[in-house]
Specification:
11 strands; Enoyl-CoA_hydra/iso; 4-stranded mixed sheet; alpha/beta; 6-stranded mixed sheet; globular; ClpP/crotonase-like_dom_sf
Length: 246
């Protein structure tokens, strides 16, 4: 489901396979496990004080096409479907919280479509880089007749600067190409191909590592900077991941 590579002080987490990388418990568990392994390496090794960075990317046409709604809809009973939806929501919240508190800079190298929960996964990184020859960022809930979760909106509020851009994302369900996303301030930069996007992410990561920041201090500053968002992600009193139409 995913691989973890280490190049010097840069960790590269890749969602593998030429498919949609739909977020179900299997893939979410694999991502969480990889993040846990990185945390363990940087907190227990003798060189734990060495600055590091994380890049998350994906193989194929999709970065992630969001929650696996087909998996969530398998049970015949409505409560069982809701239980599956809540499970996926809880697991993604855990990953997003992990990224928001991660002890190093994080970069999403978006090499394909990132829709709905997949878009949220990308936005949960400190930086988002995107290929320009294929793919779009797309908060699809309006177009598929679903209610966007409030905590998704909290991520968009924290990560997308202007009200006009947030309206494009949430209330117009705009399919943002890389160049349009750069103009809106949603992503850091656009690049000509998947390979060039990953290369640019590595270059950015190398520059951040060279700054020599202590990872725990970096994480503590991010926690202060995004404390309201982290609280919203932690608030599991609402689990409206797909409205009432599963």
């Amino acid at each position: 489901m995913c691989t973890l590579e280490k190049r010097g002080n840069i960790f590269i987490l890749t969602l593998t396979g030429d498919h949609q990388h739909r977020l179900n418990p299997t893939l979410l568990s694999a991502i969480q496990s990889a993040l846990t392994r990185i945390r363990q390496q940087v907190t227990t090794s003798p060189s734990s004080a060495t600055p590091s960075a994380l890049i998350t990317t994906a193989n194929g046409k999709f970065f992630s096409n969001g929650y696996d709604l087909d998996w969530a809809r398998i049970p015949a009973q409505a409560q069982a479907r809701r239980d599956r939806a809540i499970l996926a929501d809880s697991m993604l919240r855990s990953i997003v919280k992990d990224l928001l508190t991660f002890p190093m800079p994080t970069i999403a190298a978006v090499t394909g479509h990132a829709s709905a929960a997949g878009f949220i996964l990308a936005l949960s990184h400190d930086y988002v880089l995107m290929r320009s020859d294929r793919g779009f960022l797309y908060m699809s809930e309006l177009d598929i007749n679903l209610v966007i979760p409030r905590w998704f909106v909290a991520v968009v509020d924290a990560k997308v600067g202007s009200p006009a851009a947030r309206r494009e994302v949430v209330m117009k369900a705009a399919k943002l190409t890389a160049k349009y996303a750069v103009r809106l301030g949603v992503v850091e930069s656009d690049h000509g191909s998947a390979a060039e996007t990953v290369e640019a992410a590595v270059e950015l990561a190398e520059g951040l590592v060279k700054r020599g920041w202590d990872g725990h201090v970096y994480a503590d500053n991010r926690k202060n900077f995004l404390r309201d968002l982290i609280r919203r992600v932690e608030d599991t009193s609402e689990h409206n991941i797909t409205g009432s139409r599963l």
